Every structure is written in structure tokens, then in C-alpha cells.
Amino acid sequence: MQKLHSKQQQWMPVLFLAPAVILFVVYVVFPILQSIWLSFYEWDGIGEKVFVGFDNYIELFDDYQFWVALKNNVYWMVFFMLAPPIGLAIALFLNQKVMGIRAVKAMFFFPFVISQVVVGLVFSWFYDPSFGLFNKAIGLFGMEPVAILSDENWVTFGIIVAGLWPQIAYCMILYLTGLNNLNPDQIEAARLDGAHGWKMLWHVILPQLRPATFIAVVVTVIGALRSFDLVATMTSGGPFGSSSVLAYFMYEQSIFNYRAGYGAAIATVLFLIMDIYIAYFLWRMLKSEKA
Amino acid sequence: MFPTPIEKRSLPFNLSYRVAIWLSLLLWLLPLIAVMLTSARSTADINAGNYWGIPSEWMLLENYTLVFTQTPMFRYLLNSVLITLPAVFGAVALSTLAGYALAKFKFRGNVAMFATFIAGNFVPFQILMIPVRDLTIGMGLYDTATGLIIFHIAFQTGFCTLFMRNFIVGLPDELIEAARVEGVSEWKIFWYVVLPLVRPALAALSVLIFTFIWNDYFWALVLVQSDEVRPITAGISALKGQWMASWQLIAAGSIVAALPPVILFFAMQRHFIAGLTLGATKG
At what angle do helices B110-122 and A7-24 cross, to 10 degrees? Predict the structure, then answer.
């Protein structure tokens, strides 16, 4: 970076930044503050806003549906964490130079490229209680058919599996790139020392893959907390709200129940949870920036 | 290279590996393959519950023709194009300017501004939903493509600025400094020196956010409601309600919706992956 000399150079960065910053402030930064402010009001979305202090939050913490959604978000986060290790396993499996491997890798990545709405439809068919492939498969093992998406106990896990499909593909690509950039000298040296298999993976390869792991974990957590599309397309939160997550619960309350203030309170809680990860990511990013 | 290159193993091992990768791919894409087959099924097959076998009668052309003539699918597809292309262009343009300023100029608040762009990119959509919806309604842009485009530009600018800034930081200062000594104006430096150098990053970024915006569903639900404006993601979902029993049509529609990003990905694979993993090699 250089010092600025002339007047022109002083003003240029402002001009370069202005359009992006203005739009970003109007559509992202300011709305966040507005939502937090709105969470202290009772509002149907059209009429007058009435200040109610912390009432929305008090009601929220008494709302059974809120805890169901929160619990489901925790399930999402926990089970989504399977994506990085499975992605790594597939990446290791595919990290060879044989004919057609490029095409295979590309096609393994497909689930991430297609819309989650389509993924949701695909898995709804997969789980269909009368004809779905899932029930045909478990039928082979002599099990009774299960209507995954209308069973309160199974529905969230069914949706999470659908979400894992693209998420694993994403982690796989991150690790494939990481494996491409390994330091060959270190691996050769370790090989000469007799390291191989699990030992090699754990002590030599994984430490070198740390940047990929970091990104994989961050995007997976954010993905789990953002889950909306699949819940909306596969179940609309049902049956009886049992598969709802905070993102969908918020949408439902604000759009269908006309409770914008209450919705804003849900969004604020989700935002606060997400902030932990955002702060961690920023801290890591800026730290590596200084180094 | 890790794991050990397969060429060093025995011949049978090699052969079985080559078979195994294709088999596992088949298994991995099974749900998708089933949808493709379903999009070629006849109503009789659907009614008989033949969802997974080979179609008894191939209705590929008929089904896709039906989707395009009997449903607003063509309109949805066109809407998606009309929304996605300007949004990609706008977000990439704004963030290249902003990324350059953040990467190559020193001023107070630089890091704070950069951090805000990064953080904004990760926030849950729901915290923006009500104010953005109100703002869009207030400007008379509710249920218009413009309303959706402006929002996408604004939101994607966060990720794009992070991306462009990190790319431009790596460009040598000397080039810019040399031009400055020559007395070239700042705008011309940007246009003639910086822009040609960031071309690969522009390609990577465009491909990547094309798929992000194309696949958006949430904002299509929140900011748009009529068939005239609805992009294909929200369109498919609406069709699902209306054509409950005609799964072959919904399947065909799903394939149509999935195709553009898949084709783009295949055509620009290198750029796409470079874009996706730019942050993953450092950080």
C-alpha cells in the first residue's frame, strides 16, 4: 500500500467505495439494526407499531414452538458436522490420476450446484412412503415402511440428510483443492520415516489441510443455521411444526401470522447465535491478515 | 501425493478402483438419476408407482413440451435469467471497485469496512427480511424484478468485495505506482492497469455468484409473488402445489431449473472451483 499524495488520490477510494458501501448499508447494515429495534414492538406488518419492551422475548422463551425450532437447529449443527469428515473421505477416495477422474469429481460436486428447492423435491420422492426408494431399500432388510417426512421423530433427520448431500459435496471440493496443494517434500520425508495410512493422515496430511478444514467447518455451521429452503420445500415445518427451524419459524410468524415484531425477535436470537461464528471467523481472518 | 498413487498398486486393485469410482458415483447421484428418469415417464407409470424403474414408455419429449406449454415454466426460466444476469454484473462491478479501494489505498476505517463486508455476508437472511421487504414495498418495487435485482446486488457485494479485495491485494504495487508517477489519472489506472489483471478473478466470481443468485429461493418468496416475475426456484415450488399428482412434470421442471448452473459449472469448472476455494488455501 502506498501513501496518498495528491488531492485526487485522497478522494478516489471514497468514490470507488461509495456505490458498494451505500447499497450495503441500506440493504444489510441498516436492516439489521431496524430488525433489532422492531423486536421491541408489537406489529402486524401494516398498522401501528406498539412498544412492548421485552415482551416479545418473554413470550418467545415461553413458546414451545421456539424451543422445538431451536432444538432442531442444534440437531442441524451437530449432524451437519458429519459433512467435513465425509467430504474428506470422498476427497481421499477420488484423489487419484486415472482416466475419467476429472469428470467423476465434477459429477460428485453436482448436488452443491443445483438449487436446494430441487434437492428438496428429489429427497421428498426418495422418502415417499408408498413408492420411495428409501422404503424399498429398508424393505429389503425386512423393515416396515416409514413415512419419514410425516413422522415427528424422524422428519428433521430426514431433512438433514437431504442437506448433507450438497454440503458433503462442498466440503469434498475444499479438501480436493487442499490435497492438491500438499507439500510433497514433507510427505516423502514422512514416508521415508515409515509413516503411512492413518498415521500419515493424522500427523502429516491433516495439519496441512487445516485451512480447508477451517473453511469447511465455518461454512457448515453457517449452512446449518441458515437452513430454510429444504424445510420450506419438504415439510413447511410440519408435521405440527416438528421440523421447523428458527429461520423457518421466523418466516412463518412474520408472513403467515402477521407478527412482524415477534418475527424480528426470533431473527434477533438467530442473529446473536450466528454472531459467535461470525466473530470467530473475522478474528481468524484478520489475524492471518496481519501475519 | 496422498493417498499413494494407485499406479503403484497391483493390477486387480487398479481395475477394481476404476470400477468402484463409477459405482460410487452412480450411488451418489441416484436420487438425481431417478428424477431424470421420472421426467421421461408416462402418467400410467406414475399411477402404477413405477418411480424408480426404467420407464415402460419414454415420454421425454412429450413431458418437456408439456411443461413448457402447459405451465409458466418458460416464463420462470426467463425471469431467472433476467434477474440473475444483471444482479451478477452489478455485484461484480461494484465489488471490483470497492475491493480495489480496500486493497490498494490506505485510509482510516479500511479494516473496519472490510470486516463489515465479511460479517454482512454471513448474517441470517431473516434479520434482513422485514426491513428489506418494507423498503422494497416503500419504493414501489415489490413484485418487480428490479426490487429483487437491487437486493441481490447489495447482499452479494459483501462476499464479492471480500473476494476481489483478497485477489487485488496480491497484485504488485509497482505497476500502479509506476502509472501514478507517469501522471495517469486514478480512474485510468483502475481501468487500464487493474482491470485487465483481475480478469481471471472476475470470471471465477461471476460463475460462482451466478449459481448463488440463480438458486435463491428465500428472497424470491419474500420480494415477489406473481408468475410474471417469479424466478424458477419459486416457480417450481408453486407448480408442486398445483400439479401435485403430475410428478413427471415437476421432475421435468426440476431438471430445467437445475440445468443452467450445472452447464455453467461444467463449462467453467476451473474458474468455479478457484472461486469457491480462494479463501480456503489461506486463512
Answer: 20
Mean pLDDT computed over every residue of chain B: 88
Q: Where are the domains of chain B?
A: 6-63, 69-280
CATH of the domain at A145: 1.10.3720.10
Say if residues A124 and A147 touch (Cβ distance below 8 Å): no
Q: Give exposure, B7-19, as e/b (b: 16+ Cβ within 10 Å).
A: eeeeeeeeeeebe
Distance of CA A81 to the CA centre of its chain: 10
CB contact under 8 A, A266 and B101: no
Q: What is the pLDDT of residue A130?
A: 77
Helix A83-94 vs helix A210-226: crossing angle, to nearest 10? 130
Is A22 inside any structural domain?
no
Instruction: State the pLDDT at residue A267.
Output: 96
Write the pLDDT tens digit of every residue in B242-276: 776 678 888 899 999 999 999 998 888 888 877 77
Res B283 pLDDT > 70:
no
- Taking CB atoms and an 8 Å cutoff, what residues of chain A touch B131? 30-31, 34-35, 38
3-state SS class at A128: coil
**What stretches in chain A show pLDDT beneath 50?**
1-4
Contact check, Cβ <8 Å, B258/A246: no
Class of domain B69-280: mainly alpha
Residue B282 has what pLDDT? Answer: 40
For residue B254, give Cα distances in angstroms to A68, A170, B228, B260, B266: 31, 21, 19, 11, 18
Q: How far is B283 from chain A (nearest CA, A)?
A: 6
What is the total count of domains within chain A? 1
Q: Would you say residue A10 lies in a domain?
A: no
Residue B113 pLDDT? 92
Euclidean distance between CA atoms B248 and B269, whole angstroms: 30
Peptide bond into B3 cis (omega under 30): yes
- Rounded to the nearest 5°, which phi and psi values hold at B268? -120, 35
Q: How far apart are the first and last CA of chain B?
A: 23
Least Cα distance to A253 among A267, A242, A240 occurs for A267
The residue of A43, A88, A117 whose CB has the most chain B CBs within 10 angstroms, and thus the best one to mutate to test that interface, is: A117
